[in-house]
């Protein structure tokens, strides 16, 4: 039974209000066609690094929680950093890597549920895509 | 009766397994698997090409499968085209009727359509320059035919609708749509994927010109679908896929297409799948259709009643039993359908969460996050519905 996947840590992350950003330098919207999750990001950039971020999610609880974590981690990242962050999350979910930072540990119970990995990865993919040159 | 039927489906013997995802794919009776295996044992050969014994057996089995589908549809076998699936059948219909349309022409699509039914027309419209007109839906998720005359005008060349919605379960009023379409000289193309699994269909008497359905939703194998068409309509259509076995003559500069149905079956057809589908339809025809209908209706009512009594649950679609198939969509306040589907799966209940490949409908109903869908079949029973209702209550507690 994977009820523990929906523990307090995930629920708290998912409950955080997304923030909006007026006049972003870059914006991207990414869909997960399987379940209909949609993540929208707006970025303000300084020297190729994220100076401010707005995000919105229409999606499941896992996707909302992941979006909160991605938003927290995004500040200061450049394209290479966002790609590395995506690799860290992917590695933890798919190849059993350790959580690269404490907030990621909330997603450890998702590991055995392959069909839900994309729900978690979507916001990190969106961030990486938004920063890609 | 459902217990007798259930016993014919090996996949349903697993204790604690409650399969309510029949609108995506139905389970397969053991006799269908055996029909496919038997063909592969004694008649594995290409069709309409060989003179040896296995080839003759394959020919006979394939022709017989076509005749069975014809009986199911109350149609001559020559009007039955085997395809790789319903999606391919609907693409073939769009290509066959739409490729010569252009600016000034219109195609009317219902907002109930599955992407497999609307995207072929939208893609073709972009290429050819004809216009798409959308038939609206009511708040109950039925086709709104009040303004049919304003949409199906003399510019309209094709009306494409689903027979039964894969989201709301609403059954379309095909005779009325056919009258409107034929009144302006348009063809009526029908997606029957969700209707056929619930009993025999007579597309000609309903006014359809082309009617498509898939095998895997009708207790048959994957990789097989059917495009039925009135003989004169099929005869007027050019094939979308060309290749071996579908021409009468090939010259340096011209070809003569074979008559339907072979014109639309280029290459090696899905012989074993066709035989499997025929076995499935034969099995369906062996059941008492009236009894099945009553059983499915009683169970649907139990499901609607149970869902309706749960706090925060909203039925997306008709709340009654009139003109519907046993496909029930719903939302739960504060819970995403995908999270609920996951937690239900953990409890042995197989349902589907999401947009169900019906984005135009989701947009019209304001359901950006989709719905949860439970879909019944003749083998569904009360324990399946109970498991869903109990599991749903538990899942909601987990998520809130």
TrEMBL record, chain A:
<dbReference type="GO" id="GO:0005506">
    <property type="term" value="F:iron ion binding"/>
</dbReference>
<dbReference type="GO" id="GO:0016226">
    <property type="term" value="P:iron-sulfur cluster assembly"/>
</dbReference>
<feature type="domain" description="NIF system FeS cluster assembly NifU N-terminal">
    <location>
        <begin position="26"/>
        <end position="85"/>
    </location>
</feature>
<protein>
    <submittedName>
        <fullName>Iron-sulfur cluster assembly scaffold protein IscU</fullName>
    </submittedName>
</protein>
<dbReference type="Pfam" id="PF01592">
    <property type="entry name" value="NifU_N"/>
</dbReference>
<dbReference type="GO" id="GO:0051536">
    <property type="term" value="F:iron-sulfur cluster binding"/>
</dbReference>
<dbReference type="InterPro" id="IPR002871">
    <property type="entry name" value="NIF_FeS_clus_asmbl_NifU_N"/>
</dbReference>
From TrEMBL, chain B:
<dbReference type="InterPro" id="IPR015422">
    <property type="entry name" value="PyrdxlP-dep_Trfase_small"/>
</dbReference>
<dbReference type="InterPro" id="IPR010970">
    <property type="entry name" value="Cys_dSase_SufS"/>
</dbReference>
<dbReference type="GO" id="GO:0030170">
    <property type="term" value="F:pyridoxal phosphate binding"/>
</dbReference>
<feature type="domain" description="Aminotransferase class V">
    <location>
        <begin position="18"/>
        <end position="388"/>
    </location>
</feature>
<protein>
    <recommendedName>
        <fullName>cysteine desulfurase</fullName>
        <ecNumber>2.8.1.7</ecNumber>
    </recommendedName>
</protein>
<dbReference type="InterPro" id="IPR015421">
    <property type="entry name" value="PyrdxlP-dep_Trfase_major"/>
</dbReference>
<dbReference type="InterPro" id="IPR015424">
    <property type="entry name" value="PyrdxlP-dep_Trfase"/>
</dbReference>
<dbReference type="GO" id="GO:0006534">
    <property type="term" value="P:cysteine metabolic process"/>
</dbReference>
<comment type="similarity">
    <text>Belongs to the class-V pyridoxal-phosphate-dependent aminotransferase family. Csd subfamily.</text>
</comment>
<dbReference type="GO" id="GO:0031071">
    <property type="term" value="F:cysteine desulfurase activity"/>
</dbReference>
<keyword id="KW-0663">Pyridoxal phosphate</keyword>
<keyword id="KW-0808">Transferase</keyword>
<dbReference type="Pfam" id="PF00266">
    <property type="entry name" value="Aminotran_5"/>
</dbReference>
<dbReference type="InterPro" id="IPR000192">
    <property type="entry name" value="Aminotrans_V_dom"/>
</dbReference>
């Amino acid at each position: 039974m994977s009820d523990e996947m929906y523990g307090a840590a995930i629920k708290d992350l998912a409950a955080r209000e997304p923030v909006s950003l007026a006049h972003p330098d870059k914006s991207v919207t990414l869909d997960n066609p399987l379940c209909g999750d949609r993540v929208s990001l707006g970025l303000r950039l300084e020297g190729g690094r994220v100076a401010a971020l707005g995000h919105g999610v229409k999606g499941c609880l896992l996707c909302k929680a992941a979006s909160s974590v991605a938003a927290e981690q995004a500040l200061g990242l450049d394209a290479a950093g966002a790609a590395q962050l995506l690799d860290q999350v992917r590695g933890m979910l798919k190849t059993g890597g350790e959580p690269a930072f404490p907030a990621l540990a909330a997603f450890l119970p998702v590991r055995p549920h392959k069909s839900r990995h994309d729900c978690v990865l979507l916001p990190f993919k969106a961030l990486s895509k938004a920063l890609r040159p | 009766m459902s217990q007798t039927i259930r016993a014919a489906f090996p996949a349903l013997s697993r204790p604690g397994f409650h399969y309510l995802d029949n609108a995506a794919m139905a389970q397969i009776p053991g006799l269908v698997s055996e029909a496919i295996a038997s063909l592969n044992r004694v008649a594995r050969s290409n069709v309409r090409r060989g003179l040896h014994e296995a080839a003759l057996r394959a020919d006979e089995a394939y022709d017989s499968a076509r005749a069975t589908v014809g009986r199911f549809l109350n149609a001559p076998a020559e009007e039955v085209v085997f395809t790789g699936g319903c999606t391919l059948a609907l693409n073939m219909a769009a290509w066959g009727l739409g490729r010569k349309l252009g600016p000034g022409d219109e195609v009317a699509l219902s907002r109930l359509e599955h992407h497999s039914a609307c995207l072929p027309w939208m893609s073709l419209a972009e290429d050819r320059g004809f216009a798409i007109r959308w038939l609206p839906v009511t708040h109950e998720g039925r086709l709104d035919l009040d303004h049919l005359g304003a949409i199906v005008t003399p510019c309209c060349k094709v009306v494409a609708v689903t027979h039964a919605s894969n989201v709301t379960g609403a059954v379309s009023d095909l005779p009325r749509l056919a009258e409107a379409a034929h009144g302006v000289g348009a063809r009526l193309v029908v997606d029957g994927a969700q209707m056929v699994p619930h009993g025999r269909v007579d597309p000609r008497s309903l006014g359809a010109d082309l009617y498509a359905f898939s095998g895997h939703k009708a207790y048959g194998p994957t990789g097989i679908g059917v495009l039925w068409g009135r003989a004169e309509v099929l005869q007027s259509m050019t094939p979308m896929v060309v290749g071996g076995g579908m021409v009468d003559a090939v010259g340096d500069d011209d070809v003569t297409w074979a008559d339907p149905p072979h014109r639309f079956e280029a290459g090696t057809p899905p012989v074993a799948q066709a035989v499997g589908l025929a076995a499935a339809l034969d099995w369906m025809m062996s059941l008492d259709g009236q009894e099945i209908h009553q059983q499915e209706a009683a169970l649907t009512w139990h499901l609607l009643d149970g869902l309706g009594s749960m706090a925060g649950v909203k039925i997306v679609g008709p709340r009654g039993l009139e003109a519907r198939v046993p496909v029930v969509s719903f939302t739960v306040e504060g819970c995403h359908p995908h999270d609920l589907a996951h937690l239900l799966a953990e409890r042995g209940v197989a349902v589907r969460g999401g947009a169900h490949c019906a984005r135009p409908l989701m947009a019209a109903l304001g359901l950006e996050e989709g719905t949860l869908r439970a879909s019944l079949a003749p083998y569904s029973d009360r324990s399946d519905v109970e498991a869903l209702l109990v599991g749903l209550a538990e899942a909601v507690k987990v998520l809130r």
